[in-house]
Amino acid sequence: MVEINPLVIFVASIFTNNMILANFLGMCSFIAVSNEIETSFSLGQAVTFVLTATSVLNYLIYHYVLVPYNLEYLRFIIFIIVIAAFVQLVEMIIERYFENLYYSLGIFLPLITVNCAILGVSLFMVIRDYNLLQSLLFGAGSGIGWTLAIVAMAGIRKKLKTASIPKGLEGPGITLIITGIMALAFLGFSGIVKIQ
Amino acid sequence: MSEIKKLFSLGVWKDNPVYRQILGICSALAVTNLLMNSLVMGIGLIFVTAFSSLTVSLLRNHTPKHIRMMIEVLIISTYVIIMDIFLKAYWPEMSDALGPYVGLIITNCIIMGRCEAYAQNNPPFLSFIDGATMGLGYTAVLLFIAFFRELLGFGSLFGIQVLGDSFMRWTLMVMPPGAFFMLGIVIWIARNIFPDQTEGGPVNG
Hints:
The complex is a heterodimer. Chain A is 70% helix and 0% strand. The radius of gyration of chain A is 17 Å and the shape is globular. Chain A is mainly alpha-helical. The longest helix of chain A is centred in the N-terminal third of the chain and has 30 residues, at 37-66. In chain A, α4 (75-97) crosses α5. Chain B has one domain. In chain B, 66% of the residues lie in helices and 2% in strands. Chain B is globular.
């Protein structure tokens, strides 16, 4: 596992092991927020940032605090606390120093804490035994992949607004079916690189 | 008694967390390629939801309002850790198969949603039942999806071959796209049965 080139992990986590399309993580905000391209992009940026930072933080805490004291089983609690605390911190910093950014990103930050992609990346990192650089690129790649998927979905849903969709399929139903088709398309990348 | 009956019909059928409230679908998609995985995941979720609701309800008069979310997350994590350790000890293969999705029960918003919406304001016993029935509704949908995915994808049910060798396997069904299509279809059917669905609603985690 450890010998995989970090760049391979980076590319793989964007295309072949996309967080949404291959691992189903972060579906809920994906369905809820993918109405507008701009908001999707803002959320994507926020997710990428938090994902990259928390995967590194969680890596350090896991390997330098939890493992030496044999507390691996506490990782769920620790990871979720780190994520919540980090999101809170980022929110305060952005509110204080970058007011414009706060208004475009601010409302999404609390949402990110419960986005399962964030916790999922930290858990995958532990299960797959990545080193620091691999974790960093895995976090960043996953975030970019997530952003790519949600922005693409927002673009498709914009076109869908004028389409007539069968009754009962509007909203989540059609979004899921389109996601399925997108996942199908992304399977085409699977020949490029493979992790796991 | 009638209260329990009402909760039961809400959780399992009329207000089902998966197809009505669109909650907790990450794991609903991820583990449904095999019936056995779905069953274990469902039982785990029933356990965590029921006991988290119970604990939150017991502590509801002693929890300061502004940090209640944090407390709820800690309570949920505790039960998820118990489940994770239990699985690792007694069924390591299943623990490997479910991978990170056991840990991700923490961010499954069904649990948080029930704690916030029901257990905060109701007595412990009813909260416990409410959590358990919501978990049951989740399990039912998971098994329904997994039934079709495993049957068409592997030609088997619970790992036992039922369709024979001549059956052409729909490999697509056990890959991610199959999961999206199945859940989309389930939601479509459900919305035709219950057409009064209000659009939007809480969608998180």
